Amino acid sequence: MADSIQSFVKFVSRKISKIKWQPSQKQTLECSDTFVTGSWDDEKNKICLWHLGMQESMERDEMDDALEPALKCEADHNGDVTGLEYVGSDVIVASSSTGSVSLYKHHTSSQTMGIQYKWQCLHSHGNHLCPCTCLAVRDKTIVTAGEDGKMVVLSAEQKSPQRIIENADSSTINGLVFLRLTEVISVNSSGQLKTYDLRSSSDAPAQTLSVSGELTSLHSVDRHPGQPHIVATGSGDGVLGIWDLRQEKSPVSLLEAHNGPVWEVKFHKTNSDHLFTCSEDGAVWHWDSSLVGASHMVQTQITGTGAGSGGANFSVNPSFQFGGSETLNKWLSPDNSKMEINSLIDDNILPVNSVDIESQTLLCGTDSESIITIRLPSMR
């Protein structure tokens, strides 16, 4: 498969902390060709909007041009960008290390971008502001979390917070994702995964799961697009965890692959047998479970290639029970001997902080002050 992979490195003179595709327009079948990036570790950070001329360039058989991003517009951002999501097609929400969250409006007619509204001082330790570490978006609802263990529920159409969950966590919350319309999942520095019902009057989580054994932080989380009870997490020790929220208190399986913290995990939106991880070790891995079958093996070796690791060790929670006639999702299978893992970036040393996938095009934001666009072969 690696022979079919094509990539392009665009140097942008900024460390990229977050990268996100613009959502595809529902009324068209075409894939998105626009994405946004946020930077960090600069005196003046930026939110930048980019265009990828994929369709036009592929028609001319010019793949390098197809994979090279062109800057459309940009706006200043105060503090490091710690979270970045779209609210609709032309509004972007960004969280900051200053403890604030900003809405940016892209004006398509003039190809400019500016702040529409800013919520300030959302996260603090006492009288001292602390970073907003992550955010999640569902329709017009925005949920932020921070180093203070607090969650704040915002609406893109209101200036005042809808709700503040003051004591959501005693640890730093590192990642958030919507599970369902009114439920979110968080991961924290204590190695816990928690679910919250935003309709509940209680600050307590509805469910708490944790990695057993030695304490390690969880840095990233994503849910399966078709079966939201299946959740993937990335940890501080380089492990990819797969969880089943229906019946487990700990991960169903753990995959040791990266040599540093896993900063993001991302399921493919339409081909959910495929998952992508990026890490402090400079590697980006493509996990392909499409060939995984059902058997009764509980431990095997998976060989990876390229940066980050010489291979991956897989283990399944032996207490996990499969029951009934329900079709087992491949990510929950106890036999992953046919799991295919590919390293997508060679000879990269500095961290890859963020990834996002649209159709066959993967975006990577790095500390090497570059955006890497990767064209993958057709996925099974």
Main beta-sheet strand count, sense and barrel state: 6 strands, antiparallel
How many helix segments?
2
Give the strand order of the largest sheet, numbering strands 1, 2, ... along the chain. 20-21-22-23-28-27
Q: What low-confidence regions span 5 or more consecutive residues with pLDDT below 50?
A: 294-310, 316-326
Task: Give an account of the 3D structure.
This protein is 3% helix and 48% strand. The protein has two helices and 32 strands. It has a six-stranded antiparallel sheet, with no helix packed on it. The longest helix has 6 residues, at 54-59. The model is unreliable at 294-310 and 316-326 (pLDDT under 50).
TL;DR of this structure?
The chain has 380 residues and is an all-beta fold.
Secondary structure: elements and pairs:
Elements: E1 6-11, E2 15-21, E3 34-40, E4 45-52, H1 54-59, H2 63-67, E5 69-77, E6 81-86, E7 91-96, E8 101-107, E9 112-119, E10 124-125, E11 128-129, E12 132-138, E13 141-146, E14 151-155, E15 163-165, E16 173-180, E17 183-188, E18 192-197, E19 207-210, E20 218-223, E21 230-235, E22 239-244, E23 253-256, E24 262-267, E25 274-279, E26 284-288, E27 299-302, E28 312-316, E29 340-343, E30 352-358, E31 361-366, E32 370-375
